[in-house]
Write a structure and sequence with these properties.
Layout lengths: L2 H21 L7 H22 L7 H19 L5 H4 L2 H17 L3 H19 L9 H13 L4
Helix pairs in contact: 2-3, 3-5, 5-6
Length: about 150
């Protein structure tokens, strides 16, 4: 049996036993605090599937997104969901890093590089919005816009 099926099979057995024990009342599984770890593990399994067979590049983006989002959810679960008011730009970072990792493994599509750069830059621009000592960063954005508007050339 192929390795990828074994891993999926073991994960199915583990989750099935946990949920069956909970349904039968033999074990009380507190899913409200552990679910971000499940999201991280699913993401890691996607990335592992890619590393086991480098042709499966379609696993890179969902794996990266799930790991990043799982870490965000774990942080909010452990500390405070009110932190999401400042941490929401990480929802842009997940796909941005996914596209970047896809570009680094494939190197064919410039569009994946541009998509990753746009999402990662937007993540940092929105995140810097909340940093008090960087409150004047939008001036750089205005200057960039002026340069692009008045740029001469092709």
């Amino acid at each position: 049996m192929e390795t990828r099926y074994k891993g999926f099979g073991l994960a199915s057995i583990f989750l099935g036993i946990i949920f069956l024990l909970e349904n039968l009342g033999a074990y009380r599984f507190n899913f409200s605090t552990i679910w971000p770890v499940v999201v991280i593990l699913v993401g890691v399994s996607f990335l592992t599937a890619y590393f086991l067979n480098r042709r499966n590049t379609s696993f890179i983006i969902p794996g990266t997104i799930l790991v990043i989002y799982g870490l965000l959810f774990l942080y909010c679960t452990l500390f405070s969901w009110e932190a999401m008011q400042q941490l929401w730009p990480i929802f842009l970072l997940g796909p941005g890093l996914g596209f970047l990792f896809l570009y680094l493994t494939d190197r064919d599509g410039k569009s994946t590089l541009w998509a990753s750069l746009i999402l990662i830059i937007l993540t940092f621009l929105f995140a810097f919005r909340y940093v008090q000592y960087l409150k004047y960063w939008p001036v750089l954005l205005v200057l960039l816009g002026i340069v692009l508007v008045f740029k001469k050339g092709k």
